[in-house]
Design brief:
Layout: E1 2-7, E2 24-30, H1 34-44, E3 48-50, H2 53-57, E4 64-67, H3 71-83, E5 87-91, H4 98-111, E6 115-118, H5 125-135, E7 142-150, H6 171-186, E8 192-200, E9 207-216, E10 219-226, E11 231-238, E12 241-245, E13 256-262, E14 267-273, H7 278-292, H8 300-316, E15 318-319
Length: 320
């Protein structure tokens, strides 16, 4: 049984509450507000409560931590947790700079604990099936990928860390992280940035919109993420057909579908997928990695590759 502590009481962490977790005991929760920690612990029937993150990390009975903090703090407390000898599952984005990656890499080398970034979509049958249909040749040779994750949080009055540059806010860190990871995942190729366009709130503000264009092996790919537009889907196009996911990224436990069009015979059909909780599947997978001593496939190398892609957009993207 792996004893987990939770750093942060954000809504995303509540996806772990109320479910039996195989091989896991949720042993403690920490928040900078003890009152919030108490309320969270009561909701999740969690015995341990701490009024600071450091107190939880000092608890020798905790084997691993799940970190769900604002992006700027994720990497900071991931490194602190590793230094404290804890295994670390940290929500995306795990880091907001390559410097944070280097600190975590050094800590991992010294402490020999496990690290994993929480990209929950990788644990959903829908996306595994998309990759399978690409790699097994069902749609032929992949020619074009169009990935869109845009959520108009500004029009909906959403605030908080997502809109605060000092806390690692912005559309690229919050939404684009899924896109760059998806491009690397879908056919195993390394994306090569050709061109990127970005717009910001103002000269010193968060990024609001990005459109980036990549070479992806023999295919090309477009990635769009935004806080001031509305689109959430992807299309995978090959020389024998195409796959459309009407919803690209969602943590809600609802049924999902893929729409498949095969050119031979003009065949069109849908594949359906039952509701699932990818956050539950994700933490259970990480617990098995700890038990078996296996490196998770979403380890620090994957985090490095993703942040390098995001930093390249920040550095070379042309203003809109």
């Amino acid at each position: 049984m792996i004893r987990f502590g939770i750093l942060g009481t954000a809504r995303i962490a509540r996806a772990l509450l109320g479910y039996p977790l195989e091989g896991i005991e949720l042993s403690a929760v920490a928040s900078r507000s003890r009152e919030r920690a108490v309320a969270f612990a009561r909701e999740g029937n969690i015995p341990g409560v701490f009024g600071s993150y450091e107190e939880l990390l000092d608890d020798s009975s905790i084997d691993a931590v799940y970190i769900a903090l604002p992006p700027r703090l994720n990497g900071v407390y991931a490194a602190k947790a590793i230094e404290a000898g804890k295994h670390v599952l940290v929500e995306k984005p795990a880091v907001v700079s390559i410097d944070q990656v280097r600190v975590i890499e050094a800590s991992l080398h010294e402490k020999k604990t496990l690290f994993m970034e929480g990209l929950m979509y990788r644990f959903m049958a829908l996306h595994r099936r998309s990759r399978e249909l690409v790699t097994d040749g069902t749609i032929g040779d992949l020619r074009y990928v169009n990935f869109n994750f845009c959520f108009d949080i500004l029009a909906r009055g959403r605030t908080g860390y997502r809109t605060e540059k000092g806390n690692g806010g912005g559309a690229l860190y919050d939404l684009g992280i899924y896109g760059v990871d998806f491009l690397r995942y879908i056919n195993g190729e390394s994306p090569v940035l050709l061109h990127a366009l970005t717009s910001r709130e103002d000269q010193e503000g968060i990024d609001l919109f990005t459109h980036a264009f990549y070479r992806l092996g023999d295919a090309v790919a477009a990635l769009t993420c935004s806080f001031n537009a509305d689109a959430n889907y992807y299309v995978l196009s090959g020389n024998k057909g195409s796959i459309t996911a009407p919803v690209a990224i969602s943590g809600r436990q609802v049924p999902s579908i893929l729409r498949i069009h095969l050119l031979e015979g003009d065949r069109k059909y849908e594949e359906s997928f039952e509701p699932e909780n990818p956050y539950k599947t994700e933490i259970e997978y990480f617990a098995r990695c700890i038990t078996d001593g296996e490196e998770p496939f979403l380890g620090i190398g994957n985090t490095r590759a993703n942040i390098e892609m995001l930093e390249q957009i920040f550095e070379t993207g042309q203003p809109l």
